[in-house]
């Protein structure tokens, strides 16, 4: 019999035995493994109960664990019927008791046995015949609730000639059973004959069921009132059971947030904790969380105990600007983890809102002084670190204080502005527009992801719009790669965000950010490029009375506008010559002039004054392919000197193999 043991602390382990028969020896390999050797002789047949194998470490104090078993040595020619002595049951549960038969080369034509469960802990509930039964003549019945009769007789199907599982007996466990109680499964009334009606000696190996208990509960996401949200079960948290500081069992919460620690032996000084180091947070962390953490530090917003627990991402039991910065950089993807685990759970029985500092002493586990019965409803509430507004699993509208405007009244949005893409273009600029009613408040935080096909597009930088404050407002961007938030490998994600670090707000509509994006290859006519603005979050603040020299927030409102999708169709070649109106007009100091060529042409674009004098040549090409073009004039003459204000004319002349095109338009230069 092979032996194996391990020690979490890496201590040396030593095996020892007691009640070992004289024909048995122990070999300790010195590395946590060993072997029990049994070499019985003919006269050693019999039952050897209470053999114990103990493993002990060399720690201080030394810890040990013991396994006890019964050894049965069958006499030559005898058959053996056995039930294991390591069965476990829990109060109110069921126990499967496999009954094995060893025929030792005999052909068993008839077999009878009685099994009695002691101590009133088990009642018979059913059975399943084993695979070694050759025919239908097999029966199990219970003359009393705690005793079972097993009978087999060969009526033509053949005798039992193979070793193996004879039958599995099913017992219900008394709900009032206590941990540590045992029920013996004792054989009696044993009889067996072979096909020649010769009596066979039947050696019993009795079974034993030890009552264990179970610990179960559910983990839900914390809310702002100190409880848990039953609509937000938290899956995949690691639930750990320890005793006296040593790990005993682990399990995980299921999709419903529920966990079960089954078959726990009775004892003292147990503790249940729930942990998860990383993963599962998704897109719940955004700049609004950083904004709330920063304003909680200032005292301009009041947050709940659970929110404080989520905001303290560096684990120093306070909410500081460094937490806000950690959260913002985690949103951007600049950092991939916090100094503490991503998830923090605390017992549902703990009042985290009892006082402003109660969150600082929130226990991480449930302590069980003495375990003798099933413990149900051992619930936890959990937060994802950095999710200060407790919006997990998805950002949602949340009121943080009274008096904030409703999102329906605000209608503030972020959306992608349409643009054009011409054949041969190697770059496109995405513009994100902020629009809506900003009166009486202002945008204090925003976040969004520009999602695109990384096989087509490659963003390289961002240019913040003039509406974003240059000071007192933390803004940033990052390209997210190799993230579990990205589905297909070819999907790219550029994340933008910002939050106020002072009284500054975004108070105007306009272009929030421009994102120049390089094409991995030049655009082809008729090609479609798609981009989506997703995971949009916006926070609005309204101001009230000051506190400690800082603005006092009267209301904080969050909203999550719908995604904005943009499909860029690469234009086909123009179907005609065209000279467009310059823009802007009037202008100072630069204006843009658009023109189109339906086929390859010789092109000149020239500027004239009101006297008909040519003052500047913008384009002079003997050959230019078909396409869309833009030229710029900076108000300078051909000699590089500024020209005076007034009316000027620009003329396009284009000659192709098929036709000639001439068009003149007027523009105004203002100084």
Written overview of the protein:
The protein is mainly beta. Helices cover 5% and strands 49% of the residues. It is built from four helices and 44 strands. Strands 8-17-15-10-13-12 form a six-stranded mixed sheet, with no helix packed on it. Helix 1 runs antiparallel to helix 3 (321-332). The longest helix is centred in the middle third of the chain and has 12 residues, at 287-298. Residues 396-410, 483-489 and 544-554 have low confidence and may be disordered.
Low-confidence stretches: 396-410, 483-489, 544-554
Main-sheet strand order equals 8-17-15-10-13-12
What spatial form do the alpha-carbon principal axes imply?
elongated
Structural class: mainly beta
How many strands in all?
44
Gyration radius, rounded: 40 Å
Helical amount: under 10%
Q: Roughly how many Å apart are the termini? A: 100 Å
Q: TL;DR of this structure?
A:
The protein is 5% helix and 49% strand. By secondary structure, the protein is mainly beta.
Keywords:
single chain, 49% strand, 4 helices, mainly beta, 44 strands, six-stranded antiparallel sheet, 671 residues
């Amino acid at each position: 019999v092979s032996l194996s043991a391990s020690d979490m602390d890496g201590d040396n382990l030593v095996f020892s035995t007691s009640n070992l028969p004289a024909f048995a020896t122990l070999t300790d390999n010195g590395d946590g493994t060993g072997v029990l050797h049994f070499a019985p002789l003919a006269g050693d047949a019999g039952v050897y109960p209470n053999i114990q194998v103990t493993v002990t470490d060399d720690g201080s104090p030394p810890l040990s664990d013991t396994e006890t078993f019964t050894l049965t040595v069958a006499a030559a020619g005898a058959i053996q019927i056995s039930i294991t002595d390591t069965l476990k049951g829990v109060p109110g549960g069921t126990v499967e008791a496999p009954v094995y038969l060893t025929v030792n080369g005999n052909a068993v034509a008839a077999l009878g046995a009685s099994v009695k469960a002691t101590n009133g802990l088990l009642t018979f509930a059913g059975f399943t015949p084993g695979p070694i039964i050759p025919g239908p003549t097999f029966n199990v019945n219970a003359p009393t609730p705690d005793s079972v009769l097993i009978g087999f007789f060969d009526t033509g199907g053949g005798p039992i000639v193979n070793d193996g599982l004879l039958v599995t007996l099913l017992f219900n466990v008394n709900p009032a059973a206590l941990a540590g109680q045992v029920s013996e499964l004792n054989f009696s009334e044993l009889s067996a004959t072979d096909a020649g009606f010769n009596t066979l000696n039947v050696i019993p190996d009795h079974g034993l069921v030890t009552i264990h208990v179970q610990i179960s509960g559910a983990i839900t996401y914390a809310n702002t009132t100190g409880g848990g949200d039953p609509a937000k079960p938290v899956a995949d948290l690691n639930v750990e059971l320890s005793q006296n500081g040593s790990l005993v069992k682990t399990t995980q919460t299921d999709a419903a947030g529920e966990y079960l620690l089954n078959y726990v032996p009775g004892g003292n000084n147990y503790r249940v904790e729930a942990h998860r180091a990383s993963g599962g947070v998704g897109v719940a962390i955004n700049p609004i969380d950083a904004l709330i953490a920063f304003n909680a530090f200032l005292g301009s917003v009041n947050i709940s105990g659970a929110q404080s627990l989520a905001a303290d991402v560096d684990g120093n039991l306070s909410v500081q600007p460094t937490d806000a910065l950690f959260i913002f950089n985690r949103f951007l993807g600049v950092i991939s983890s916090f100094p503490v685990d991503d998830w923090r759970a605390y017992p549902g029985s703990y009042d985290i809102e009892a006082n402003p500092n109660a969150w600082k002493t929130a226990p991480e586990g449930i302590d069980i002084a003495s375990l003798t019965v099933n413990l149900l409803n051992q619930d936890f509430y959990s937060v994802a670190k950095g999710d200060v507004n407790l919006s997990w699993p998805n950002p949602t509208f949340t009121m943080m204080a009274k008096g904030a405007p409703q999102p329906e009244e605000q209608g503030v949005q972020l959306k992608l502005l349409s643009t054009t893409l011409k054949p041969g273009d190697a770059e496109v600029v995405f513009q994100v527009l902020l629009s809506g009613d900003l009166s009486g408040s202002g945008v204090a935080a925003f976040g969004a992801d520009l999602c695109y096909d990384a096989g087509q597009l490659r963003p390289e930088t961002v240019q913040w719009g003039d509406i974003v404050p240059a000071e007192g407002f933390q803004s940033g961007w990052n390209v997210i790669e190799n993230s579990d938030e990205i589905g297909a490998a070819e999907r790219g994600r550029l994340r933008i965000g910002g939050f106020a670090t002072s009284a500054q707000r975004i108070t105007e509509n306009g272009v929030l950010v421009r994102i120049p994006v390089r094409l991995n290859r030049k655009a082809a006519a008729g090609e479609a490029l798609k981009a989506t603005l997703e995971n949009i979050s916006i926070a609005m603040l309204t101001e009230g009375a000051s506190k400690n020299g800082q603005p006092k927030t009267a209301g904080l409102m969050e909203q999550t506008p719908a995604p904005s999708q943009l499909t860029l169709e690469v234009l086909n070649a123009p179907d005609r010559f065209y000279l467009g109106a310059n823009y802007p007009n009037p202008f100072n100091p630069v204006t843009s002039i658009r023109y189109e060529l339906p086929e390859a042409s010789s092109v000149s674009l020239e500027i004239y004054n009101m006297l008909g004098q040519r003052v500047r040549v913008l384009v002079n090409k003997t050959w230019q392919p078909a396409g869309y073009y833009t030229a710029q004039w900076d108000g300078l003459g051909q000699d590089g000197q500024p020209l005076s204000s007034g009316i000027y004319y620009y003329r396009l002349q284009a000659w192709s193999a098929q036709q000639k095109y001439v068009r003149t338009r007027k523009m105004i230069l203002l100084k």
